[in-house]
Design a protein that fits this description.
Blueprint: H1 11-24, H2 29-42, H3 47-56, H4 67-77, H5 83-90, H6 100-105, E1 108-109, H7 123-132, E2 137-140, H8 155-175, E3 181-189, H9 200-203, E4 208-212, H10 221-232, E5 239-240, H11 262-272, E6 275-279, H12 289-298, E7 302-305, H13 317-326, H14 340-347
Parallel strand pairs: 1-2, 2-3, 3-4, 4-5, 5-6, 6-7
């Protein structure tokens, strides 16, 4: 849980906390956007103007402020914790029962998305929330160009993003006394022939590369096996993302898992030092328990990732930690339990 609630009588903090808690429970995106838009709008309004508008009843004249968000601002200015925030906090609770030990061991998250691709918030907001959650690092992994439905990044757009990431990383490293790093990454599509959907030279500029299958998930097992083994063998691949592509619940419906020779794929992961991702999104829960067991037997490394598409979803690590602890995944084999220097040595080794 973040520490935002500690200053919940501050309107911006309260609005951000409400958005976080709604994202954490996968609420409708339009509701969440209203609170994040209002929080952003208030950043350019001085406290005196805000107080005078609240007294005059003109808060809603501000762009991005509606009836509900104006009421929350007014409650905060009166020195109260907003009632809606109190209600959300009371029903938040832990996301998963169990896994606390593994969750405490995690230092960062290797898979997250921003509004540069199909995420809902600026990368700065993702990074700030990661700091508030106590992360030591966050890898930004927006999609590669072939995934057009997710606004995947061309080489030119990724180059621009890397400049922004570097600036935000420098700022946060300074403000946290070196306690946080925003790392350069990508979730790169695994093409049908096992190639990766980005140039080798661009991949070499990144700190962490997550490779995932997003298309033709129903390929015959031999072809899917060859595809995944080839991608795992690429020298820039660090993580095999949500390996079966299944969906078990949620607004997108359900989808069966891809079929492939798991022993061959996980054997390749172990051989090349590629981590098998335990994807923490509740609608994915990927890999299934039996495949986690096979990856353990194969000697694989693992990473527990949120695959967050909004700041509140960074808290999804609790789901993956519960599964990893229950299934007996040793903490020392989970790469995002490592300090950032060891992580980077592994990823770039």
């Amino acid at each position: 849980m973040t520490s935002q609630h500690a200053s919940a009588s501050d309107p911006v903090a309260a609005l951000r906390r409400i958005a976080f808690l709604l994202e954490r429970r996968l609420a409708d995106s339009y509701r969440i956007k209203a609170y994040r838009t209002a929080a952003a709008a208030l950043l350019s309004v001085g406290p005196d103007e805000l107080a005078s508008r609240a007294q005059a009843g003109t808060l809603r004249d501000l762009p991005g402020i509606g009836a509900k968000t104006a009421a929350i601002v007014s409650e905060c200015l009166a020195g109260d914790v907003p009632g809606y925030l109190t209600e959300l906090e009371a029903t938040a609770g832990p996301l998963a029962e169990g896994g606390e030990g593994h969750r405490r061991s995690l230092r960062g998250d290797l898979h997250s998305h921003s509004d540069w691709s199909d995420g809902g918030s600026p990368l700065e907001e993702m990074a700030m929330t990661a700091v508030e959650l106590g992360h030591e690092y966050l890898v930004l992994t927006d999609h590669s160009p072939r995934l057009r439905v997710a606004n995947g990044l061309s080489s030119a757009r990724l180059t621009q993003q890397l400049e922004v990431v570097a600036a935000v990383d420098e700022h946060l490293a300074t403000s946290t006394g070196g306690g946080f790093r925003l790392l350069r990454g990508i979730e790169v599509d695994i093409l049908e022939d096992g190639g990766l959907d980005q140039t080798d030279s661009m991949l070499a500029r990144l700190d962490v590369v997550v490779a995932s299958v997003h298309s033709k998930l129903r390929m015959e097992a031999p072809a899917m096996t060859r595809r995944m083994v080839a991608a795992v063998g690429h020298p820039q691949t660090n993580v095999l993302g949500h390996c079966t592509g299944r969906l078990v619940t949620g607004g997108r419906g359900t989808r069966p898992q891809s079929t492939f020779d798991a022993q061959a794929v996980f054997g390749a992961c172990a051989e090349h030092g590629v981590a098998v991702e335990i994807n923490s999104r509740p609608e994915r829960c990927d890999p299934p328990d039996d495949l986690v067991g096979l990856a353990l037997e194969a000697g694989c490394l693992f990473t527990i990732d949120s695959d967050a598409h909004a700041p509140g979803q960074l808290d999804f690590l609790a789901y993956g930690a519960e599964r990893a602890e229950r299934l007996g995944v040793p903490v020392e084999r989970i790469v995002n339990s490592w300090p950032v220097d060891r992580l980077l040595d592994w990823a770039n080794g």
